[in-house]
Amino acid sequence: MAHDDTNAPRRPAGTAPDMSWFGWGDPALARSLDPGLRDLIAQVLRARPRDMPPVPEEEVRLPAPRLDPRVRARLTEVTGDAHLADDDATRLRHCGGKSTPDLLMRRAGSADPAPDAVLYPADHDQVLRLLEVCSAEGVAVVPFGGGTSVVGGLTPLSGGFGSVVALDLRRLDALVSFDPESMTAVLGAGVRTPRAEALLAEYGCTLGHMPQSYEYATIGGYAATRSSGQASSGYGRFEDMVVSLRAATPRGTLAAGGPPASAAGPDLRHLLLGSEGTLGVITEVGVRVRRRPERVLDEAWSFPDFRTGAAALRAVAQSDARPTMARVLDESETFVGAALGGREATPGCQAVVGFEGTEAEVDARAAAVGAVLAAAGGTRLGPEPVAHWRENRFSAPYLRDTLLSAGILAETLETAASWTDLVPLHAAVSDALTAALDGDEGGAVVMCHVSHTYATGASLYFTVATAAGSAPLERWERAKRAASEAIVAHGGTITHHHAVGTDHRPWMAEEIGALGADVLRAAKGALDPRGILNPGKLIPAPRG
Amino acid sequence: MAHDDTNAPRRPAGTAPDMSWFGWGDPALARSLDPGLRDLIAQVLRARPRDMPPVPEEEVRLPAPRLDPRVRARLTEVTGDAHLADDDATRLRHCGGKSTPDLLMRRAGSADPAPDAVLYPADHDQVLRLLEVCSAEGVAVVPFGGGTSVVGGLTPLSGGFGSVVALDLRRLDALVSFDPESMTAVLGAGVRTPRAEALLAEYGCTLGHMPQSYEYATIGGYAATRSSGQASSGYGRFEDMVVSLRAATPRGTLAAGGPPASAAGPDLRHLLLGSEGTLGVITEVGVRVRRRPERVLDEAWSFPDFRTGAAALRAVAQSDARPTMARVLDESETFVGAALGGREATPGCQAVVGFEGTEAEVDARAAAVGAVLAAAGGTRLGPEPVAHWRENRFSAPYLRDTLLSAGILAETLETAASWTDLVPLHAAVSDALTAALDGDEGGAVVMCHVSHTYATGASLYFTVATAAGSAPLERWERAKRAASEAIVAHGGTITHHHAVGTDHRPWMAEEIGALGADVLRAAKGALDPRGILNPGKLIPAPRG
Fold it and tell me: Which positions are catalytic residues (chains A, B) (predicted)?
């Protein structure tokens, strides 16, 4: 373990650092709120921001570790003494993800539940052996990758067991193999994206997966949550990139995929993709890679309104034209985006398209996409308005922390629907959020963009800002519930790329049906008969 | 029922006709063997063809129907009297698929096992009710679409139950809904492809799924077997087209999919896709559609050898260039193809690329693909050599019947592998087939083409011709076993698009692992607890 002082978390030598325990990312990058922006927010939200700083770390209350010494010894027999940590600093950094409820709890000094210990296995075989011990001893296991979940996927619920451990996969950080002819690579599940890109860059390749959590999220986490990145139009969703998976389960190894396609029964990759650590611990991911682009070109476009902009992106998605990235902001987000970027707000709404490839490919594709957008009523604004977004595209979570310290909740939620359902769904969710948050404690700004487009539909990504009010957690939960109900009622999926965790679990039975839930429980029974893997997440409780 | 004479099968009024009971398709289209070709084959195969006509239909031995009259009455209560058939002609046409073993058995007069009855449900709800009755009464159920399986997927195994019924879905032949904005359609599972195309053509759309079984195979069958069509490079595999599925199971309805993408847990569409009737009966399939192409352009290319041709297709698949179809024939198939097309054989091997779209799209894509192929050592031959293939691309099964009547086995098998494994796998399977068939009864012609390409690998489609010999069934089974062992040993999947059925089931435990098989059994337990659905197919028997 590398630790300079006794209060630092005991992370394994040479591995990536933990994120801030009360917010996103590197604490050194935290920003303060510009007083002018603060006043503007107060006006727009009809609420006086108040200081809401996090409690000092030493005041955080952690429950006493409960791991039986005999069980602890069995676990360190697998990992070695150095790779089990049960100090408070390490446990604190593994007691949840980065949703607004997570942060509100942590900042107020609550770290309960916390894992009783954090395990740092070296490889697949150690994970297998740890699961064997935990299954035999009745210890719940929460697989932990980059720690970026915003849906409660990392909350260390014990699920009726006497103790719970976080299984931190950061030591599984190797490029296991690379096949230049087939353009595939096998990566350890714990590899964070910047490291994955650096490893692949040595071969002139890229994965092209760029979600907002890019800097911290891991390859295994992407697979476990069916992640989707900002360049999904060109590179596909993460599940489209996965050619093979290897997972450790309490009943042994489950490997799936390999050949480029197969008709040999149901595709079991898709059982592990999206399984959120409830069916197994993904330890290795085989991915398709692409050559690194010679050129990246962004372009902003303007449309008279969101409906027209969305229809234009539909025309692109259903044509032969292929952007690498395609987004359209609603009127509200267009206005706020211009303000944050220090630009004058243009009327209507803005769309952004991006292109990656060789010089010739970028030219050809930008021309093809441009022709469709222009025909659909768009006006080309050029690259300038996109520059601020591209520079800051991974930093919104830092801004959220800053706002939170100033008493402002800024949270996101997302869905996807067919093109036919999209605009009505956008209105329904916007209205639900606005209504749920409007009252004595001020109002809300609700903004939205389409961030991922498909031939048959698109995603909607909402951002909400509102005063924290007197009971911030309850306030946000009320808004989230209202939005979720609107989503389900208007043909949306409960989550397009944030996954299920604890927060979307109440809507899963409706999403996949009672029989679908039975199937997931049956699969879990085959792989994790005792139910130690990430209890209380994803899979709905059995029908009464 | 529409039947003109008492010996005709009793198919429901207005539905598509059955195929020939002993061969492919429409008996009126059977062809006779040109004497010149017959002599050539004799010479190449070192064997004297012999006449092997099918027995007359009245000599076929069917087991007596075993359905309990009380159970029969419960079933007709659901379907109506007119939609249960247990006459010999109907049962004979539902006692298997169209593999060479199927045909050899049938032609020799064996129709055992045969279904005890054939059910023609009207809709999803009738399927649900029939499964309820069959589950309660212990009757095995074999879902039956177009009847085109070549892997034993339709063999009416009773699985330890006292009787078995074929569930013929031809009445589920409607376009249930069409969404022009989202470019999606919901089709009944029993719709055959030409009808699906006709229904979609009314909206100017196409599915673009063109497997060799096109004329008879159904939409539900494609989903149940993870089919892939000849234009998969452009339109995708069938599983890529499926946006939603509805299935009836003994435990109720399982519906999956809908929104264009989701992160709400494992994608349960992929549990039904490839389930081959073992987990549920797919009754409706939501598909993505495309606009009908203005233009279709085919081009042949010549390469010095198979390795160079395959590498050229790899370069295309890993580039921005996008053919709708991409195939490359090995030297042997290039030679035979030229002979069958009445053209002089060119040295080396031939590739075929096809393009569909608007005039401008076809031009642009043909230019882009052509540039890659030329750079990879190809010589453009133009459209002419492709014309014979396109005209005859659905008729190879008729030729197989003709050859079978002349004592020649002509069967196919297929696999897929990474680009790195592809050429060694091609050699290994070719050698295995050649060695298994060479002996006192003559030799074999083994040919192969790449029919589907992906960024990370490709499929291999082998065709084998050999004299039937004294024990044709055993002779073919020996060759098939040798090929399957070579596939598994050299990184191939046991099936790229023919599915598993009975014939590939012995290799499934190796393909998906013992734990993968456990998961499938667990899913089946949740959906079909009594195990009535297509017993003996796909899912390996439990570990001893």
Answer: 461 (proton donor/acceptor)
